[in-house]
Amino acid sequence: MPAIEAHHLTRRFGTITAVNDLSLSVDTGEIFGFLGPNGAGKTTTIRLMTGVLTPDEGTVRIAGIDLHTDPLRAKRCMGIIPENSAVYGDLTAIQNLTLAGRLYGLPAVDRNRRARSLLADLGLTDRADEKVRTFSKGMKQRVSIGCAVIHEPAVLFLDEPTAGLDVQSRRLVTAMILRMHDKGSTIFLTTHNIDEANALCTRIGIINRGVLVATDRPEILKQTFDTTQAIEISFARQVDPDVLSHPNLLRIEQRGDKFRIVTDDPDQVVKYLAAWADREGVRIASLNTLGPSLEEAFLAITGGS
Amino acid sequence: MQLPLFLQGALAVTEKNIRIYYTKPPVFIFGLLFPLFLFIAFFMGRGLELVRFYPGFLAMTLFFTASSVGPLITPWEKRDRTYERLLSYPLTVESIILGDILAGALFGFGISLVIWVGSLLVFSLPVGNPLLMIAAFILGTATFATLGTLLASPASDTPSTVMMLSTLVRLPLIFISGIFIPLSALGGAALAVSYLSPLTYLVDLFQGAMNGAAVIGPATDLLALLVCILLFAAGAVYFQRRNLMKGL
């Protein structure tokens, strides 16, 4: 049974159609990445799928339960981690977690035990009884995660969960996502971070202008939408990129002290670069071949540049 | 809709509201200080007959306290970005509104009860009909807590704007509800206008319960307050649904 099923979701705001006839299905145990440029309809879609908004047309089922005819039972099957942590600053960390546990219908004994255990997992035991308003952004996001997973939901929605976090908090958030996945939760992740999606997701959906334009495994999307490859090279001294010229060399982009050379035939271009460097007496500091990237696929699909 | 889950959610929201909003400065100012200062301004040093005017003062206190929590909650939550998350919990707009109403009603009930019991101990006030007094407390707090939640419906994410608007609505009501001039002394257009205020029926109910001197009559007062609760609750649900996206 799919963990998330959306059928023909449509939502309009005045004359603007934010989500247009969107259908998707996420299987139990998947980590599904939901990508799209700003204003593409990601947030509206996630609001429709978490019951914050009601669609003009279409249905959503969470773990087989219709979200709009039986919202209370459907919402008990999910946890939501919003982009901005959205926790109560006037409550302590433990109070935020026990409140969430109560809202999800956990008995008092269970919610207190799980709240303490989660705070330990999130590295917040020492701050459990302090008001959250005194916490850093990363710590607030950790409390937010605790609120979302205290009832061990079947489906976990994450909206840009690592945006603006420091490295330590980002790693902790990612570890928690993977831990929930290992425990059997289905993960629905919206993110701008294509590397994060590439690393975590078993399948990716791309939305553009309210329409779901592609859904597939990351590697398939890369192969489908990017037939070119790239070579990353850096020289021991400064080189003018205009002196490099070869029929299979399609484009050169300077990135710091490196050049990213887009090519349709890496073999020919690598041989050309090695020969050119040898002839000119320039030492190659590093040379890497890069496969097609999800970023290129994303840009191709969404029409970005 | 499953009623136990609905009520469980509403009670969790009530508990959250009690923990967070009872100690907010606007609740303290508009719910406690405001009626106290009005009492001092209008009653102290004027040699007024306490037994005659006390029901109006008690109704005014209950009105301000019960309606002071509701207007604050939704704008505050929208500003702090917790409202959207609240909607994603196993709650509906209706259960959130019920939780807000209960929090306001409990605040109004508790404070007004303390003031009334304190007054009974200090002054020799009559209690002609205790059952009617209890009904007045319950229906009065429910009516004005619901009004407070309705006043939050503009759903701006600026609490001070909503508090100002709610004061603009609430303040005129105390001048047309038989608090400063008893209903028995009103006539003509003034009496007709007073019937438009829900507070009038609570003042009259307290007069009936304490002094046996209701002008409109307890049955009509109770019915009017019940109708007000239903109208305010329906309005709160309608407007909060309509303004759901504002400030998210």
Helices and strands, with pairings:
The complex is a heterodimer of chains A (305) and B (248).
Chain A: E1 2-13, E2 16-27, E3 31-35, H1 42-49, E4 57-62, E5 65-66, H2 71-76, E6 78-81, H3 93-103, H4 108-121, H5 137-149, E7 155-159, H6 167-182, E8 186-190, H7 194-200, E9 203-208, E10 211-216, H8 218-225, E11 229-235, E12 249-255, E13 258-263, H9 266-280, E14 284-290, H10 294-302
Parallel strand pairs in A: 3-8, 3-9, 6-7, 7-8
Antiparallel strand pairs in A: 1-2, 1-4, 4-5, 9-10, 11-13, 11-14, 12-13
Helix pairs in contact in A: 3-4, 3-5, 5-6, 8-10
Chain B: H1 3-21, H2 25-43, H3 50-66, H4 70-79, H5 83-88, H6 93-122, H7 130-151, H8 159-175, H9 188-194, H10 198-211, H11 218-242
Helix pairs in contact in B: 1-6, 2-3, 3-6, 3-7, 3-10, 4-7, 4-8, 6-7, 7-10, 7-11, 10-11
Quickly describe the structure.
Chain A has about 300 residues and is of the alpha/beta class.
Write the element-wise H/E pattern of chain B from the N-terminal end onward.
Answer: HHHHHHHHHHH
Under CATH at level 1, the class of the largest domain in chain A stands as Alpha Beta
The proportion of residues forming helix of chain A, as a percent range, comes to 25-40%
H/E element sequence of chain A: EEEHEEHEHHHEHEHEEHEEEHEH
Enumerate the spans of chain B where pLDDT stays under 50 for 5 or more consecutive residues. none
Structure overview:
- The complex is a heterodimer of chains A (305) and B (248).
- With 305 residues, chain A is of the alpha/beta class.
- Helix content of chain A is 35%, strand content 30%.
- Chain B is mainly alpha-helical and 248 residues long.
- Chain B has one domain.
- In chain B, helix 3 runs antiparallel to helix 6 and helix 7 packs antiparallel against helix 10.
- Chain B is globular and about 55 Å long.
- The chains are: A alpha/beta (305), B mainly alpha (248).
- The interface between A and B is medium-sized, with 30 and 26 residues.
